[in-house]
Amino acid sequence: MLDRVSGALLEISDLQAWYGESHILHGATLHVNEGEVVTLLGRNGAGKTTTLKSIMGIVGKRTGSVKFEGRELIRLSSDAIARAGIAFCPEERGIFASLDVEENLMLPPQVRTGGLSREQIFDLFPNLRERLKSQGTKLSGGEQQMLAIGRILRTGARLLLLDEPTEGLAPVIIQQIGNTIRKLKEQGFTILLVEQNFRFASTVADRYYIMEHGKVIDEFANSELNQNLEKLHEYLGV
Amino acid sequence: MFEFCLPAILGGKCIPSAALFGQLLIGLINGSFYALLSLGLAVIFGMLNIINFAHGAQYMLGAFTAYLLLQLTGLGYWPALVIAPIVVGITGIIVERTMLQWLYKLDHLYGLLLTFGIALILEGVVRNKYGSAGLPYTLPDSLRGGQNLGFMFLPNYRAWVIGASLVVCFGTWFIIERTRLGAYLRAATENPTLVRAFGINVPRMITLTYGFGVALAAFAGVMAAPIYNVSPQMGSELIIVVFAVVVIGGMGSILGAIFTGFGLGVIEGLTKVFFPEASNTVIFVIMAIVLLVRPAGLFGRRA
Known about the structure:
The complex is a heterodimer of chains A (238) and B (303). Chain A has 238 residues and is of the alpha/beta class. Chain A has a single domain, classed as P-loop containing nucleotide triphosphate hydrolases (Rossmann fold, 3-Layer(aba) Sandwich). Chain A is built from nine helices and ten strands. Chain A has helices at 48-56, 78-84, 101-106, 118-124, 126-130, 141-153, 171-186, 198-204, 225-236, and strands at 10-19, 22-32, 37-42, 61-68, 71-72, 86-89, 159-163, 190-194, 207-212, 215-221. Chain A has a six-stranded mixed β-sheet, with helices on both faces. Chain B is mainly alpha-helical and 303 residues long. Chain B has a domain at 33-132 and 209-293. Chain B has helices at 17-48, 55-73, 77-98, 108-130, 156-178, 180-190, 192-197, 202-224, 234-249, 254-274, 282-293, and strands spanning 3-5, 14-16, 146-148, 153-155. In chain B, helix 2 (55-73) crosses helix 8 and helix 3 runs antiparallel to helix 8 (202-224). The longest helix of chain B has 32 residues, at 17-48. Chains A and B meet through helix 2 of A and helix 6 and helix 7 of B.
């Protein structure tokens, strides 16, 4: 395991989570340093999405510790967690059918200063500019993903939780999402990414955590990827 | 004075214009109350997923609050029009915080039964204290009298009720469909968990929405007080028709509630002129037809 960097932006320790009676996370521990892109890898059902949802406080029950900028979030409601400066982009994108593109884009309130302006978002995702008055769910899958990421960039949150942003998208769109994530990293955003598409993850991530059965079982940096490829194939079953 | 006649195939009945427009006005007045009440029900159902059977009782509480303000403090119609919706809205907020909030994840039936029980309790308590006979509430001086339009006499108070209802209904529609607050409400109706994860305090928004819906009912109650007698059963008499209006318009549809409320009031009024025997049932016949042809309602979205 890599040494833990003291004063990490996000520190999670012994995180346990339940959906009703189902115990999903069994003590996940990880950290994300400021300005990093960290990817959670693992097979389906390993607990990656639940980890993001537990950070945001949208699972039934959770215990352990989630510290953001040194502040404990485990007892806070999800709206208070968002206002602390964490933004979440869900796997299913969460575009609202009753809102047009502009309303979807402007929906999340600004929680801090320093969020991207509309123009900066349109520079990242030019397609959105032309579709502002379309119903949100009438966009293509790629455009919906751009909208889902674009709207959380306005909020000023410095930690972005992105859940499988490339799922079901064409290669050209995946490339565009990858470029966007690299630009966001350059601008100082910190990103915790859940991804099944390892090829994509390897183009953007600084570090990886491997999850299995609701726990983190391994961790390595992108620079150590070649030494760990065989192990990774075994973990992911590919 | 002129007459309107039905085609021969429909019986050829002729009606003087004054009678026709008089009934049309009564239809619009009833439609105003249908629209205000069904609008509150639509807002509450859309946001809370609760079929608020207490809505009629809350309308009645609005009228009684106006009556009590006048009797106990001497505050008349205009202050009551502001104070009663706030007071009754606050009681709604208490009901939501203490009872309704536990039912959102359960079947609609639980919310319906709870609010039905609340309606029975409120009506029973008021009946015990004030009896069943209606209590009079005088017209505000500034709205006495009326205008002779040539083809009919238009009482000022009734014109005010129709105008105020239109303004409140379309004001509510504007807030929900055209403002940022409305966007929060519509988004939270679809996916409250995600809206909350964006940093919006959805539980507080739900509480205030219920309070607003209840306040709308109380506002309608105050406006109804000078027209109808203030009585414990004034809400239960109206609420069944209002539910039919909501079903015809489409559950949770704001525009549906407004247009159907006014439209059905007018249809009911015209039926009283041309076919009085059917006037009490025409709305329910329309509801049955709409349910057969378009189960989601005229303005509702299919699930």
